[in-house]
Amino acid sequence: MFDRLFGKRGGNAARGGPLAGLTVPSSAGVLSCRVLDPVHEPVRQAEFVVSDTAGRKVLAGETDPYGTALATVPAGEYRLAVTAEGYTPHHGTALVTEGVHTGLGDVMLQVAPQPPLPGPGDWEIDPAHSQIGFTARHIGLARIHGRFNGFAGAVRIADRMERSAMHVVIDAASIDTGVRMRDDHLRSGDFLDVGKYPTLEFYSERFTHRGGSRWAVTGALTSTG
Fold first, then answer.
1. DSSP per position, 124-137
2. pLDDT tens, position by position, 45-95
3. Does the pLDDT value for residue 164 go beyond 90?
4. Angle at 210 (CA atoms; ends 205, 212), nearest 5 degrees
5. What is the rounded CA–CA span in Å between residue 192 and residue 194?
6. Cα(220)–Cα(45) distance, rounded to whole angstroms?
7. Checking DSSP bridges between strand 151-157 and strand 142-148, what pairing results, if any?
8. Helix, coil or strand: residue 38
């Protein structure tokens, strides 16, 4: 989860609490916190950055499914930044002591205020300021990130944003994962079969506010010939 993980050999034993008996490298300590939303539910995959007093990043990672962040760092004073989509960022400080677990307790994130919404009407998606990306698992281990470079679409904003609709047409052959051989395979009949189904179409009539400027759009994605 982090650049340095708790529990290396040859270190000191952490004293007290649930981490008692585990070891850390010499001259290091343990830093942890739990990230929660306003109703005390864990925020998973919140981004976690620890910097030194000069502002240099020491490590970064994400919270686990229980909202927990845990890492070992050299003893010293640090700045902590926690961010998650739809929430106001949290900033704090921590003093880490050799061989000691510094628990920051619960970090409560507040929902970010919603920015002004566009007026009702039809809005064309601007490809120059938009992106269609995806993440897929490779043999169940690594995550592959990619995008489609060719697409067009529109959003119909309703009087109530939740009742809005979106329609996007994607050039299937424009798939781009950064590896030419892999992209050629994805275009083949084993996957997208772009010769038979040259376009992908996405349509949605379900918009859900996730806090701040974040909205979830749920719909159907189909291949068309």
1. E--GGG--EEEEEE
2. 999 999 999 999 999 999 999 999 998 999 999 999 999 988 899 999 999
3. yes
4. 120
5. 5
6. 25
7. unpaired
8. coil
Distance from C-alpha of 67 to C-alpha of 43, rounded to nearest angstrom = 5
Question: Please, is 221 exposed, middle or buried when counting C-beta atoms within 10 Å of its C-beta (0-12, 13-18, 19+)?
Answer: exposed
What is the C-alpha separation between 136 and 175, in angstroms, rounded? 13
SS3 call for 6: coil
H/E run at residue 222: strand 215-224
Q: Find tokens 């916190």 and name the residue.
A: 33
Question: What tokens does 13 get?
Answer: 């034993």
User: What's the residue count for the chain?
Assistant: 225
Q: Pairing mode, if any, of strands 47-52 and 76-83?
A: antiparallel
| Other beta carbons within 10 Å of 20 | 10
Residues ≥6 apart with Cβ < 8 Å to 130: 151
Type and span of the H or E element at 183: helix 180-187
What sign results for the dihedral spanned by CA atoms 91, 97, 98, 100? Answer: negative
